[in-house]
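Chain X:
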Amino acid sequence: MKHKIFYLMLALGVATFGVSQTLTMNAESGNRSTDQANCWEYGAVGYTNTAAQVISGSWSMRGNSLSNPSLDACWIKSPWVLLANGNITLRVKMENTSGTGGTPPNNYKMVSVRFREFDPNAPSTQGAYVGGTQDYLIVSPFTNVQNVTFRVPAELVTAGKPLKVVISFSGNGGNNRPNIDDIVIP
């Protein structure tokens, strides 16, 4: 019954909001709880309105220090989506240059994207990862805004199944936090 309700809600959402071509997150609500109520999920990511940390608008997201190479240490998960062809984009900058400049496994900072499949028999945030992992190595100048782009795998669009887009932030060495803004998912 749970999965039937989900698919009904998804179908109504697509019918009601079918004109929308993208899902966006820019933290402009200024309230992480508000965005969580809209089904965004966060792990070690908060909101900031400190001028030096904001990328655009009045608010941005701010991750914990990227001193952990695990993709599960610092992340943002989208609501359930049906992906379209195109690119997932976001903007990121590091707060300082501490622990940056290397390549994995030494002193690096990275943004990765993965796709979690809906499983009606698993808890709402669980399911198998599909479509592989794509990585973007943050490069110098680290404190400048970097436009990050990931290709949506064609096989996930063709499959037409609900997915969560999981954007992870990882690293090794130093004390440096990412500032994140303007996430766009087709």
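Chain Y:
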Amino acid sequence: MLRHTVSPAGILILSMLLVACPRRAVELGKDGAPRSAEDLLKRVEFAEAQITSLNGDAKLFVDSPQGKGAVDLFLAVAPPASLHIEQLDFFGRPQAVMMTDGHAFGLFQDGRFLRGTATPQNLARLLPIVIPPGELAAVLLGRAPRMPYETLEMRFDDRSQRFVLTLRQGAATQKLEVQPPSYRVVHSEAQGFDAYALTFGDLTEQNGVTLPKSVTLEAASSKTKLELTLKSVTLNEAPDESMFVPEAPPDVPVEELN
């Protein structure tokens, strides 16, 4: 059997060639590199604001202490906090329908209609995560909710080819990894307070805007992980506002929630 060996001189030459290989230039967009942390944040806000509504089909995978499983969903979302979420069976028929305009809440499930205030606890009756309606709407639209901050810091990470934007308030921090040239947040993680981490993936251009087609939410304190994948969605069409009004179907018993 012949064995191929590389001499020390060959290893040295190979190492020099690898070092000499130029790294692919980072696309920064028509305005070039951000001039400051504030400039970077403005680009993130502009990119996120390009999607003003979303509706269509999605797949949700849940891993929580209550169990694991996947379910098909129909979503309709509009800022600041309007949500219509249908949980579908194998044949695409709604098994549960949640709706909120950010203030009132309604859930049709198991032959009854629950009605109350749009609290995080009420939203958790359908999704196994305690989150305010405005934050849930933002996440479904591909936005990373941000904590209040006193200072901003920016750096560029050569390894990931992303900007890292750090928000600070006292001992609390939130780090946002931002992908140029779309300037979409692809990861958000906080320290110093109880919060969830977000990862946005599969950045896709649709109708002239960039949309993350997948989002993973991990809440360490509740040991819960949600993975949402958008399948076929429509962007920026005027939503049917009646979808967000929590009204019970005819002849369905209504239970008022505190």
